[in-house]
Amino acid sequence: MIYLDNSATTPLHPKVKEKIIESLEYYGNPSSMHASGRRVRAYVEQSRREVADFFNCSPEEIIFTAGASEANNTVLKSATTCCAFCNESRGHIITTNIEHPSVMNTLKCLQQQHVDVTYVKVNKKGVVDPADVEAAIRPDTVMISVMYVNNEIGTIQPVDEIAAVAAKHHIAIHTDAVQAIGKLPVNLQKLPVDFLSLSGHKIYAPKGVGVLFKRMSAKKICPLITGGHQEKSMRAGTENTIGIIAIGEAFRQLRAEMDEGNKRIKMLRDKLEDGIKSDLDGVIINGDTQRRACNISNMSFKGIEGESILLRLDMHGIAVSTGSACSTGSLEPSYVITALDVDPSVAHSSIRFSLGRETTEEEIGKTIEAVTETVNFLRRMSPLT
Question: What are phi and psi of 93, to 5 degrees?
Fold first, then answer.
């Protein structure tokens, strides 16, 4: 198997796997006061420090969750239902029209509860203009939520500029940074966001663990899950200690490997694009090719369906995606690609290649050959060509 779907999920880092096996012996409840519980609590807090060191923030600002979807829900639902935020109109939220489904569908839910949402359009390269965000601000705007890196096309949003706009108007700002972590340097001393969400399984940790960063100076938010006092009473339930220990190790490895690893991944991504475009006509690279994460390449192949390409590449033993894994099952074209104001046929023919730390140059060469064979075969079979 050649695995080129790392934006959907990543394999475990070998060091993370070792740490998980080691932590299977740590069975104490971290809330217990006896020695077994204190031992596990120490490991949990060590992981919290690892995450905080990566972001250059305080450990007190790190809340462990079950993933970014939970973190996104916590922030967005608090923005309009928590006593620290709500007002008579229940507030107004600004976002973009290419956010992850965990943001889009949460906001749709809030709209049914009479919350107003403005979806600012991105340009043809998939980047939102901070001026358009500022123009959407109203007196009752309580939050701006803009993803850092798009999960389908890899475009990097000007979150720092949008954060400055939010600060100017005294509005809370949240960023879904799932696809940015490990691909871009994120220093929370320099990036003035109030809230940031991420998932462990995108950075070579296991599924089922994530992080919500909440700046100490940010407005109070309400927990999505209420109950016990865990995570400073912000996320009730006995902690996923194995997952938390694992994500701490994943961040430790990122700090050591990220810079050199990303240079190699970018070189391989560029080789993939150059090879495919050299062998095939009618190939479009979606998004901003100058302002994107190093690991994602979203290509459209004129005249054929993206799903057909995916299935035939799977027969070659190559795993790719037609978009977000959270949207799998829909026959509609990607709303992210559609938002770029392209012809519908381009949206239907898109494939996302997302590389990772285990991707090799040999695999990229084989992928170029397989994509060329696949596209030529399907075009011969397609009535659209």
Answer: -120, 140
Domain identity same for 109 and 195:
yes
Q: Which H or E run contains 38?
A: helix 35-55
Record the tokens describing residue 173, joined without a space: 């700002």
Residues 58 and 157 grouped into a single domain = yes
Q: Which of 276, 93, 100, 95 is nearest to 180 (CA)?
A: 100
Q: Which helix (H) or strand (E) holds 11?
A: none
Packing angle, helices 35-55 and 241-279, rounded to 10: 30
Annotated catalytic sites, by residue? 326
Torsion of CA 210, 215, 221, 224, to 10 degrees: 0
Same domain for 229 and 244, yes or no, is yes
How much of the chain exceeds pLDDT 70, in percent?
95
Quick one: which of 227, 236, 240, 223 has its CA closest to 30? 240
Residue 12 β-bridge partners: none
- Distance in angstroms (rounded) separating the CA atoms of residues 82 and 67: 21
Domain boundaries, position 319: 2-8+258-381
pLDDT at residue 332, as a whole number: 77
Overall domain count for the chain? 2
- Angle of helix 101-111 versus helix 68-81 axis, rounded to 10: 30
**Residues 287, 157: Cα–Cα separation, whole Å:** 11
Bridge partners (DSSP) of residue 172 are: 143
SS3 197: strand
pLDDT for 110-129, tens place per residue?
Answer: 999 889 999 999 999 999 99
> Is the predicted pLDDT of residue 252 greater than 70, yes or no?
yes
Structure tokens at 148: 């850092």
The candidate with the shortest Cα–Cα distance to 75, out of 147, 129, 135, 167, is: 147
Reported confidence tier of residue 303, pLDDT bands at 50, 70, 90: very high
Element (H, E) at 142: strand 141-145
Length, in residues, of the chain: 385
